[in-house]
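Intended use. Records like the one below are meant for learning the mapping from a protein sequence to its folded structure. Do not use them to infer anything beyond what is encoded.
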Amino acid sequence: MNANLTASICHQLKFASLRGSEEALTFPCSAKGEVDMDALDHRDLYSYLYARAVVGRSLAEPVVETLCT
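Structure written out for the chain above:
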């Protein structure tokens, strides 16, 4: 597992849906919200790039959520 990804398991970048019926998209990230795109598989990379492209249209601005306490 990538060292950057291992260090960031406690955070996720969440893109909430602007349409109530759709699920949010989440991706592992650093505390600063940086996603290691090299660590994502092809499907997750495609989803992440899609999420970034539709912010403001289908998805809200992303927020960093802390998963660990």
